[in-house]
Design brief:
Helix content: 25-40%
Oligomer: single chain
Strand order of the largest sheet: 2-5-3-4
Structural class: alpha/beta
Order of helices and strands: EEHEEHEHEE
Number of strands: 7
């Protein structure tokens, strides 16, 4: 099963689900300030106003640090995400989130997580 992500604006107030490396956040923040293009984060939308960051925790932290309240991201609908987790992962979000990459389609190709 695959699901499609679409490009949309999201709030940067989304909090990371895990700790971030402060040095990495600082490096990314400086790159944003210099105008370096960064890959778009990947999030699962929540119609209740929240979201789940799948990839891009450091980018979200850096954007918040420089005062950005919104950013473009690849967004997966929560309904599609829930169906994917149920159908492919027996209802449990995998502990190694890279397991999801082959199931998410962006621009007619599978998602490639940033290293």
């Amino acid at each position: 099963m695959t699901i499609r992500a679409y490009r949309d604006e999201v709030r940067t107030s989304i909090l990371p689900q895990h700790d971030v490396d402060d040095k990495k956040v600082l490096s990314i923040r400086d790159a944003y300030r210099r105008g370096v293009a960064m890959p778009l984060p990947l999030v699962v939308e929540d119609l209740g106003g929240g979201a789940l960051v799948l990839d891009g925790h450091h980018r979200f932290s850096a954007l918040r640090d420089i005062g950005e309240s919104q950013t473009e991201a690849w967004v997966v609908s929560s309904d599609d995400f829930d169906r994917l987790i149920e159908d492919e992962f027996y209802g449990e979000v995998p502990s190694d989130i890279t397991s999801l990459d082959d199931h998410i389609i962006i621009d007619n190709d599978t998602y490639k997580r940033e290293e």
